[in-house]
Design brief:
about 675 residues, alpha+beta, Collagenase (Catalytic Domain), Neutral endopeptidase, domain 2, 2 domains, 3-stranded mixed sheet, 11 strands, globular
């Protein structure tokens, strides 16, 4: 109630919708005025009001499929990492030798070109030597050890029903297209894409030395086999439901599920410790895969495995492979016109393979103690706002409310970087072996994962590296993880005004991740991370009713052409956006303590808050990329992450004096948290 009254008071101060000041500069608050499009009414289209100037001034580069504010930050981080890597290669220390050698090998295109297919030949020969189905489990185990995800995925993870224990997990895998639905769509684009995929596979197989006609036949075989695998896979919406992806099976039950696949041989080959049970994420997928493999000739399986191998190895092979890989996965699927420069790809590869070694050097220069302290203070304020919200939300009963407050209190907040850095001493990096480094890095990570099985969960681990421009909530850990890479300008700075920090990072990131603990997926886990139902039926029904409002709202948005946003797929992220921005706003208003709103750069704190949130999403995307993301990404397109949120918040309408009936003032608003 207090927030609504304050928002109403702000409305009295603003007789007309504001326009950005003419100055083409960043104000003292941290808001960049050049990003505005002053011709747009913020009450009609807030995203383009806040971002139109930036979009016009930042066309999508030819080597990108989209271009957003966060990608500019990624570029700045990459520049910094490049300097670290170049220094490590030129003047290595004991702490930086591995990242320097990895970088040097990756950047040596001449050596890669000179070696040709020789580094890959032993693996091709290994696949070619497969002469019986009985030998397949050992071969798949070996391929998994070098990062080739053929047939299925295998690793470790928390037991969803016992969050203190690490168990073995087997999941779907082995598909070359981005989503199982790509194999079955019968519209013109779906058929055309599959035809282009087959041509791409054929060209890659031709580069391996296969005759043209045989390569075309092999490519058709790959599509047929992958389609058979995809038939048993869950769709993306179903995979968001943890009840549908947890099936703890004994070894005997697993053997019965897949009678033609010898798991004992596979587990020995992949390097797993002995296991008595495995969590099978998708039993229907594994059972269908087992039946499919029994039907396909051994030659077809070898063909499929060769494709899986070359697809994985392509970035580390001569230029012809790199270019063909980009032609399909970059140009055809995302619309990018040019491949990224080699140095950018090598920075990303080093971050993926040796991320905490590289991240330790990054943190030393990019994330000072004062930035971490300021972040910690803001996180505490957001958590306090969430506690107030949980205590006051009118649709939740007392029994569920009490458990929700316990869960929030147990939520860990991990900021910047891990407390303990990963030890890469057992990973061999060879300055003259780019492909081998990639294979060995994948093997190192798989060994690290498998070594956890049967051991207590390490709650200090991170799933992303410190330079990553991202954050996440882990429902089984019940923690939020805010990487140092995203806690940078223009999203966050110790020198920014609170309204800007709270808008771009407090609500858009911190509150967003906290709310994930209580979205349609996260709410199914308790404070320890166990998958358990702690809701009363009445409260669960009331949650579902409010969630359906969000599904309906976002499903009405058209992403590209005639393709709508999938409100069910994006539900969790949309709920987190809506809740996070509310929490950030509440925390900001509390921090003001009822003081007279002070304008900076012509905007009140409330206006600066919403502008900062919107400008954190400024960007545009090629149609191909938008289509791909809409079909596969649980996040809504940025335009709707802005306009969808503010149109559900009366506080926004009050701050910008929007009249009833304006596009950014929904007659029926959605609210969960």
């Amino acid at each position: 109630m207090q927030r609504l009254l304050l928002a109403a008071a702000l409305a009295v101060l603003l007789a007309v919708p504001p326009r950005a000041p003419a100055a083409d500069a960043t104000s003292d608050s941290g808001i960049d005025h050049s990003m505005f499009d002053q011709s747009v009414d913020p009450c009609a289209d807030f995203f383009h009001f806040a971002c139109g100037g930036w979009i016009a001034a930042h066309p999508i580069p030819p080597d990108e499929s989209s271009w957003r504010v966060d990608q500019l930050l990624e570029d700045r981080n990459r520049d910094l990492l490049r300097g670290i890597l170049e220094k490590a290669a030129a003047a290595p220390t004991p702490d930086t030798k591995k990242i320097g050698d990895f970088w040097a090998a990756c950047m040596d295109e001449a050596a890669i070109e000179a070696k040709g297919l020789a580094p890959l030949r032993p693996e091709l020969d290994r696949i070619g030597a497969l002469n019986s189905r009985a030998a397949l489990p050992e071969l798949i185990g070996h391929l998994h050890r070098i990062g080739v995800g053929a047939l299925f995925g295998f690793g470790s993870g928390q037991d969803a029903r016992n969050a203190e224990s690490e168990i073995a997990i087997a999941d779907e895998g082995g598909l070359g297209l981005p989503d199982r639905d790509y194999y079955f769509k019968q519209d013109a684009e779906g058929r055309a894409l599959r035809a282009d995929y087959v041509r791409h596979i054929a060209r890659m197989i031709r580069l391996l030395g296969e005759e043209e006609g045989q390569a075309a036949a092999d490519a058709a075989t790959v599509l047929k086999l992958e389609t058979a695998l995809a038939r048993g896979a869950l769709d993306r919406v179903s995979r968001r439901d943890p009840q549908k992806t947890y099936h703890l099976m004994s070894r005997a039950e697993l053997d019965q599920l897949t009678p033609d696949f010898n798991w004992t041989r596979y587990l020995e080959s992949v390097g797993s410790p002995p296991v008595s049970s495995v969590d099978i994420s998708e039993p229907v997928f594994l059972a269908g895969e087992d039946r499919a493999l029994a039907k396909f000739p051994l030659a077809a399986i070898r063909t499929y495995l060769r494709w899986q191998l070359v697809d994985t190895a392509a970035p580390w092979l001569p230029k012809a492979f790199v270019d063909e890989n980009f032609a399909f996965y970059g140009k055809r699927l995302t619309g990018a016109k040019e491949i990224r420069p080699r140095w950018k790809r090598c920075v990303e590869a080093a971050d993926e393979s040796l991320g905490e070694d590289l991240g330790r050097a990054y943190v030393a220069v990019a994330f000072p103690p004062e930035a971490k302290a300021r972040t910690e203070a803001m996180v505490l304020q957001i958590a306090e706002a969430f506690e107030t919200d949980l205590k006051s939300v009118d649709w939740m009963g007392s029994e569920t409310r009490a458990k929700a407050l316990v869960k929030l209190g147990q939520m860990r907040k991990k900021i910047g970087y891990p407390e303990h850095w990963r030890d890469y001493s057992s990973l061999e990096i060879d300055r003259g072996d780019a492909l081998g480094n990639a294979f060995r890095s994948a093997g190192f990570e798989l060994r690290r994962e498998l070594a956890k099985i049967g051991k207590p969960v390490d709650r200090g681990e991170w799933e992303i590296t410190p330079p990553t421009v991202n954050a996440y909530y882990d429902p089984q850990m019940n923690d939020i993880n805010l990487a140092a890479g995203i806690l940078q300008p223009p999203f966050f700075s110790p020198n920014f005004d609170d309204a800007v920090n709270f808008g771009a990072t407090g609500g858009g990131t911190v509150g967003h991740e906290m709310t994930h603990g209580f979205d349609d997926e996260g709410r199914q886990y308790d404070g320890h991370g166990n998958l358990t139902d702690w809701w009363t039926k009445a409260d669960a029904d009331r949650f579902a009713e409010r969630a359906q409002c969000v599904v309906d709202q976002y499903s009405s948005y058209v992403a590209v052409d005639d393709l709508h946003v999938n409100g069910k797929l994006t539900l969790g992220e949309n709920v987190a956006d809506l809740g996070g921005v509310r929490l950030g706003y509440a925390a900001l208003m509390r921090s003001l303590g009822g003081k007279e709103p002070v304008k900076i750069g012509g905007f009140t704190p409330a206006q600066r808050y919403f502008i900062a949130y919107a400008q954190s999403w400024c960007g545009s995307s090629r149609p191909e990329s938008t289509r791909l993301r809409t079909m596969t990404d649980p996040h809504s397109p940025p335009e709707f992450r802005v306009n969808g949120v503010v149109s559900d918040m009366p506080e926004f309408g009050a701050a910008f004096a929007c009249r009833p009936g304006a596009p950014m003032v929904r007659a029926k608003t959605c609210r969960v948290w």
